[in-house]
Amino acid sequence: xxxxxxxxxxxxxxxxxxxxxxxxxxxxxxxxxxxxxxxxxxxxxxxxxxxxxxxxxxxxxxxxxxxxxxxxxxxxxxxxxxxxxxxxxxxxxxxxxxxxxxxxxxxxxxxxxxxxxxxxxxxxxxxxxxxxxxxxxxxxxxxxxxxxxxxxxxxxxxxxxxxxxxxxxxxxxxxxxxxxxxxxxxxxxxxxxxxxxxxxxxxxxxxxxxxxxxxxxxxxxxxxxxxxxxxxxxxxx
Length: 237
Hints:
The protein is α/β, with parallel strands linked by helices. Helices cover 36% and strands 16% of the residues. It has helices spanning 16-27, 41-44, 90-116, 139-159, 186-194, 204-215; strands at 7-11, 31-36, 48-52, 72-75, 121-126, 164-171, 226-229. Strands 3-2-1-4-5-6-7 form a 7-stranded parallel β-sheet, sandwiched between helices. Strand 5 (121-126), helix 4 and strand 6 (164-171) form a beta-alpha-beta unit. The longest helix has 27 residues, at 90-116. It is globular and about 45 Å long. 43% of the residues are buried. Belongs to the short-chain dehydrogenases/reductases (SDR) family. Keywords: Oxidoreductase. Pfam families: adh_short_C2. InterPro entries: KR_dom, NAD(P)-bd_dom_sf, SDR_DHRS6-like, SDR_fam.
């Protein structure tokens, strides 16, 4: 894969999957534009154009700094708040929806004219294995990510004629800062690994490679799909 001459926007690139994707695409020659609330020291080491952005707030002119043509958008923001259903306030359901769904809607509405000008572009969103595989204590995030999957398919259908592909990646538990509380002891990490048929948890690079493939010309015949990168958790026993 190579991305020389291609402009890619990554939202949520300061850490975790977004940072791993930025590092990979940077090495493959992409011109990167990254947006998040804060620029991490790790992200600052890469040659990117950084745009400060809180996706839960009105955007204003923040994304006006994007180039006239965008070849790809990756939307990575997410969270992990696992609690019994009866202890999740409605405000938390609303917050998860705003972060995962409405944030993506705002980014894509602001980017669509630029994507159309590419003559062939790709959007990658992120779901979760829990959106399709029922998991206890995942009610809020599974609800929001299921909406992301619906958005993925609807936009893929709407923009196919413009040669804009839209896909989602659905990971299981991944070794990122968001998952730190679930993996902060050897016992927790081992138990999480054993839940996966492949006997390990995901690494950010596992997801970065899939996202980069979907952005690349090698994925040019794939759209409207939700692709699991979950160690077999969603399909195997």
